[in-house]
Amino acid sequence: MNASTASPSASSSRQILNADSLRQLCLELGADDVGFVELNRPALDPERADILTALPGTRTLISFTCRMNREPIRSPFRSLANKEFHQASDIISEVGHNISRELERKSIRALNISAGFPMEADRFPGRLWVISHKPLAEAAGLGRMGIHRNVIHPKFGSFILLGTILIDAEVTQYSHPIDYNPCVECKLCVAACPVGAIHADGHFNFSACYTHNYREFMGGFNDWVETIADSRNARDYRSRVTGAETTSMWQSLSFGANYKAAYCLAVCPAGEDVISRFLTNKKQFVTDILRPLQEKKETIYVIPGSDAEDHVKKRFPCKTVKQVHNGLYVSSIAQLLNRLHVAFQPNQSAGLDVTYHFTFTGAESVNATITIRDKRLTVQEGLIGTPNLHVTADATTWLGFLRKERNILWALLTRRIRLKGKIALLKQFARCFPS
Q1: Which of 144, 220, 323, 341 meets the CB 3.0–4.6 Å disulfide criterion with 215?
Q2: Residues 223, 324: contact at Cβ < 8 Å?
């Protein structure tokens, strides 16, 4: 598929915009940097279907960024950081709105997809977003992803928010990725992350980050509501949720959802405008920015038995661990298999070298092979090789078991779940995916 054949709209005019003029317009209307990517760019393959659903006839994507102020993000007072996130998000939404409006005045169809929320909540816990801003920003030359999984702009560093505009016109010149990564590999984000989500070798534990940092978003909010529903009375609720936690949730509901950490952004020294303070005195940079976040007394939310729980107890004794559920429940076997890598806890799998066969029956007929070896997870379609354990399960029963709505013993006795191999291997499997 290419940009000229992707559009089902016969009325779309085949306009070609001057890239320099379009860039100048975006900058004048508040963008701090901008790039253009054609629809048929291979980097957009995972995004193209949603792009064309959002704006049929899209030919070009405008990726733009707005800077955030650094000091609020660096502050141990997270209210200040979150206020900056919200203000910057409002700004980038307004900038995208104004650019789109000017393009519409020129008879160009334009759709602003601003940073942050709202999202497509009906697709939760699947793909909530319309477009992934980060890979598009990389394709547009606005930076590269660091090991903290944020785009690092060559000039502004990690202190940016991203926006995207879809247009039904081509431009005279498209942008390309920068030929280096601004990340300086200082590993300060690794040291700062309270849940150990960022690993020095590049591995990222999504589950750890999501459970804590996004506690007052989506899944964490679901868990809080279920805690209210499960509480017998006010006293029981107060034994489960502190007054500070209730107030924080109210604040998120009233003024916008708050991040619990985002320390990886706070300590990142990369970017031409940012790095001088780090290079001038690295020790002082660590003292002023990293240490206050590491030594902050706060509650860290973790899944019981997770790598994050072990990390907090080992690295941050000054912080309080609170066991929670992250509120992520899958609704199908296909979704489960697709998201296993998100829930996988590498350190909990230490020493395992096991192959599992899963045969799901009933509402979904699916065969899958799951291998855990060297702290790595592999999921393959079909039954491959010789398994150490073969699980045959009714799909609905298995999903109910995962949601703790079905008892495993009952399922085994009624043969809705059948095992061929050592049952201890199923326990070891569960250990790698705590919930």
Answers
A1: 220
A2: yes
Segment 195-213 mean pLDDT: 93
The CATH H-level (homologous superfamily) assignment of domain 333-431 is SCP2 sterol-binding domain (3.30.1050.10)
Q: What is the mean pLDDT of residues 159-168?
A: 97
Cα separation of 62 and 51, whole Å?
Answer: 12
Delimiting residues of CATH 3.40.109 domain(s) in the chain: 16-171
| First-residue to last-residue Cα distance in the chain | 41
DSSP state of 414: T
* CA–CA gap between residue 230 and residue 209 (Å, rounded): 25
- For residue 409, give every residue at least 6 positions away whose Cβ sits within 8 Å of its Cβ, in sequence order, or none: none
Per DSSP, the residues of 48-62 read HHHHHHHSTT--EEE
DSSP 198: B
Give the Cα separation of 304 and 323 in Å (integer): 5
CA dihedral (317, 319, 324, 326) positive or negative: negative
**Could you tell me which CATH class the domain 16-171 is placed in?**
alpha beta
Q: What is the pTM of this model?
A: 0.90
